[in-house]
Each structure stands twice: as C-alpha cells, then as structure tokens.
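re: ur question from earlier - yeah i can do the single chain one, its not a big deal. heres the input i used so u can compare w yours
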Amino acid sequence: MDDTQITVVEPQKQPEPPKQPEPLNQASGPVDKLGFVDVLTSGIGMGVANIVPLLIAVLLWLLTIWIPYINVGTTIAIYTIPLSLSRGKVINPLFIFERKYRQYMGEFFLTCAFLLFGLSIAGVFLVIPAIVLFIAWSQAIYLVLDKGMNPAESLSCSNRLTSGNKWTIFGVKIILFLLYFAGLMLFEGFYHVTGIPYVAGFLKFCLMVVYTVGQLGIDGVIYNRLSRQLETQE
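and the output i got, formated as tokens:
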C-alpha cells in the first residue's frame, strides 16, 4: 500500500480591525487634579508678570468697544488672553485688532448663547446648579477658540475636564475675590482716617488692575493644567 501524506491546513487568523482613535473632545483616563495653591499663586504671578501689556490691551478694547464689527474681533481676542498666558507667550497689546479673531464670530456667539440658555434654566433651581454649571462649562469658549471644537463638543469636553476640579476652581475664585474685597475695605478705611480721597482712589484702581490680571492669569493656569490631557491625544 502507498503511504499517503495528510496535510493539515491551519485556519487563518482573521486580522483584527484597527482601533479607532479616541476623539479629542473625550478625555481618557483619570482627570488631572488641580492644586489649589499652585493655581492661585501661579495665576496671580503670571498675571502680574504681564500686567503692562494686559492693561494696555484692556484699555484699547474699552476705547474701541463702540466701533461696530471691530468690537466683535477685539472682544473675542480678549477671551484668548488666558490661552496666550497658558503657553507663556509674550503678549503684544495690538493683537486684539488682528482680523483672524472675527472668523470665530459664529462659533463664539453660538457658544455664548448655549451658555446663557443653560445657565438661565439652571438658575431657576435656586442658583447653586447654575454656579456648578458655570464652572463645568468655564472652559468651553477656550476650547472653541483653541481646539476648533464646535459649541456642543466644547461644552461636553469642558464638563469632563472640570470633573473633580470644580471645588478647586470655585475656591480659587472665591479667595481671590475675598482678597480683593478686603483690599477695598482697607483702602476705604485709609480714606476715612486720612481724608485723602485721591490716594485712596488710586490705590483702589491699582488693586482692581491686580485683581483683573490675576483673574486672567488664574484662568490661564487652569486651562494649561486641564488641557494637557487633550494634548496627549493629538
């Protein structure tokens, strides 16, 4: 009898389908926690370090706010200041007049409309839900201007980025305001003791400037820390 060779054919493995990349507006893994002291001190320091260009930019915005159409671009540009601060960029006060900011007009207005509508509905439930929602959506406009997200994506992404950090953001904002208010009361007392209105008024103005640039710096630090998880996905 002839020997017959039997060939065993192994079944071919089906190739695994390629994994779909995760969308940029979805944060993977645990959300980075903000440090209260880090955000407060770094934010105030960042704002004060850029106090001159920031003050000039705000003054230019106030002087041109009455000019139709131009005021839209300058207002959007003012909203991008925390984005520039978050990257450590040197701010040129004349940047607010660049025409590129007007191309975001539709997305900017639509995002603002979503914010106002949502906060108005939340405000009906005794204010606190509106405060929580305001913090949850606080990064939305930055994501539209920086990442090119549409308004709906930016709101959803902002909610995820701020998850677990709302108390820190709220606390930093409250502490900064309380410091500002305490300073106002101190200078008001100085006026009543000395009777010198001009000095007290000048000190109040300086305090308001520091408070404003501190707010911008804190917003820049918060966005810098929270947006890092998006950059790892790009």
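The longest helix spans residues 197-226. not sure if urs matches, ping me
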